[in-house]
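Reading is simple: the token line describes the chain's fold. The lines below illustrate.

. . .
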Amino acid sequence: MKYEELVDEKALAVLRWNNMGERASKLKIPVYVKSVDDGEVNVSVLEIPMREQYLTIWQNSGHMAPASDGTFLLDPCAAWIEAWETP
């Protein structure tokens, strides 16, 4: 589980998109990594402009699914997680 070191940390989720321009395909979403279990990464999506609209799009695309506690499950095959770089 290569993302275990990011548990309890801010990170950036990068969704994998097919047939999309580079700008859209490299969109980085600020998240807080809650846990890594059974091949899924449990995250909270941090506040961003139009957060609810984006969450709907990402869920409909299959990149993430809602968890019962208000967080989201990311499939590592559909996204990867990068460490949060502070300036």
In short: The longest strand covers residues 28-37. The helical segments are 22-25, 51-61. The chain has a mean pLDDT of 86. The radius of gyration is 12 Å.
